[in-house]
Amino acid sequence: MLTAATLTRVVAAALEEDAPWGDVTSTALIPAETQAVADLVAREPGVFSGGEVFAAAFTLTDPDVAVDLHFADGDSFVAGDVLATVTGSARSVLTAERIGLNFAQRMSGIATLTAAYVAAVEGTGVRIADTRKTTPGLRAFERHAVRSGGGSNHRTTLSDAVMAKDNHLAVIRRTGDDLAQALRTAFAQLPHTTHIVIEVDRLDQIPDVLAGGAHTVLLDNFTLDDLRAGVALIGERATAEASGGVNLDTVRAIAETGVQVISVGALTHSARALDLGLDIRID
Fold it and tell me: Where in the sequence is the domain holding 158, given as residue range(s)?
């Protein structure tokens, strides 16, 4: 969840990084009394995200700057739409411009890509979820953007749920213990509310992880035929999740195998920043 405290802390740090001793260009060239109006304009269509983050870049720079958001997070827009208007000291607007744009472009890019995945599986009932493949320090922002695009969030941190992946299972196998029993023994120590996700990359692993207590079985890099077989094996005993090899060309076929969740790392690690610009006007 993108809280107000996280938003303020991260945006303030970004502003300090960008102008540690002030904006020498704006101070040198722009008279202190000059006022400006600037429009956040879409250069291409997309889905908006990061409005409050964009606004914070300006208000943290100068509390007297006003930001009027014309679109809400999750709203679609077309090229030429004015997404927000900024009014205040020209120096302050110019100082905050790049940081505000960086956040809005990045978050809107993620929201737009997520919306494309969600649209591709429309009617299947499948959830499109993100992963922990996020930019360090910006996870809350990027996950907010996924929700803006209609997607769902996977576990947020390592502390939120058990998710045993291939390397975890490889270590367990090295001990020589029976996998199902080793999982049951480990999970018996957890609170009953802890969600357990186990990743498998072969069909023959599914019975053991179900016997071990998995709530979700993550079918990683399965073929479509194996996904269908995996869903049949899992039945109603756990949630079937697919990952690996997911792109906009394949996601519909994966959804139609019967899985309930498709996790897509590309939502956050490969989204292109959307082309947004700040067009300034001087009163």
Answer: 123-269
31's tokens: 């008279």
Cite the annotated binding site for substrate by residue number: 98, 131-133, 155, 165, 199, 220, 243-245, 264-266
- Give the separation between CA 231 and CA 217, rounded to whole angstroms: 9
Tell me the CA distances in angstroms from 135 to 1, 22, 114, 143, 267, one per residue in order.
15, 26, 16, 10, 12
- What are the two backbone dihedrals, phi and then psi, of residue 203, each rounded to the nearest 5 degrees? -60, -35
Same domain, 169 and 209: yes
From the number of C-beta atoms within 10 Å of its C-beta (0-12, 13-18, 19+), residue 204 rates as exposed
My answer on whether 81 and 184 are in the same domain is no
The residues carrying an active-site annotation are: 98, 133, 165, 199, 220
Same-domain pairing of 29 and 99: yes
Structure tokens at 145: 């953007």
**Do 41 and 99 share a domain, yes or no?**
yes
**pLDDT digits 0-9 by tens, 153-190:** 999 899 999 898 888 888 877 776 677 888 888 888 88
Rounded Cα distance, 283 and 279, in Å: 13
Same domain, residue pair 76 and 194: no
Provide the whole-model pTM.
0.94
Q: What is the pLDDT of residues 63-77, one digit of tens each?
A: 999 999 999 999 999
How many domains does one find in the chain? 2
- Left, alpha or beta for 226 (phi > 0: left; psi -120 to 50: alpha)? alpha
Phi, psi for 56 (deg, rounded to 5): -65, -35
Does one domain contain both 168 and 249? yes
Task: Please tell me whether residues 103 and 224 are part of one structural domain.
Answer: no
Average pLDDT over residues 26-49: 96
